[in-house]
Amino acid sequence: MARNQNHDLINDPEGGIDRLLEIMRRLRDPETGCPWDIEQDFDSIAPYTIEEAYEVADAIARKDWPELEGELGDLLLQSVYHTAMGEEAGHFTFASVVRNISDKMVARHPHVFGDENRDKSADQQTADWEAIKAQERAGKAQRGTLEGVALGLPGMTRAVKLQKRLARVGFDWSETGSVLDKIVEEAGELVEARDTMDADAVEDEFGDLLFVMANLARHLGVDPETAVRRTNRKVEQRFGEIEKRLAALGKTPSQSNLDEMDALWNAVKADERSDATKG
């Protein structure tokens, strides 16, 4: 394609994915591209990819659909970035990545694209999905139960994935009561470590407690990352309201004290419950 044709595509608002791919090629051009983009590699871009995925989740949580549109574009750019670098290194191309995920979706949904009966529960479909994934791992010579769980996942998400793998081979509690008992046990060990051991031991016991908490989340059908993000938003909103109420009194948080702010916190919670009841 001639240079002017490339330029026409780059400036074509209806150019679709071909336009975005060409923009990335131009950004990465070693002679005429952007110096910053040229210097990047898989390792340097990976943190941005993770950040963009979280920003997508944040826009969804806030139900900000115009923002989500933009964030999805940012996340798509990350895929285009990685595939451009993969193509330059001879590893894969955007077309091969698209073909790979398309083949995978067809293979994992035989009840939609094949001859299997579609009349099954969501739980059965999930079990079938996991069985197909296990077959895929076997084909990649991943023999260990816990092999192949991505190291770059958030800690609690990875803990849940590890526990799902363990549950498939029967290494799991059968009901939540046993998990709650284990939480009490681990909390006791954390207290003991705090009182008698060094910082490394405290961190180790704290990690054990978090791992069991992730297991409880799985048993309850709760995604722990989603749950903690929800609590983070709640804390932000409530403390923002505390600051407003303090401002009405001519104060800032640093001019207040714990007792006053705790009382305001409880008042905000009571107002939230009242509003929920009215709604």
UniProtKB/TrEMBL annotation:
It holds the Pfam family MazG. NCBIfam families: mazG, PRK09562.1. It comes from the Bacteria. InterPro entries: MazG-like_dom, NTP-PPase_MazG-like_C, NTP-PPase_MazG-like_N, NTP_PyrPHydrolase_MazG. Residues 40-113, 178-238 form the NTP pyrophosphohydrolase MazG-like domain. This is Nucleoside triphosphate pyrophosphohydrolase. It comes from Sulfitobacter pacificus.
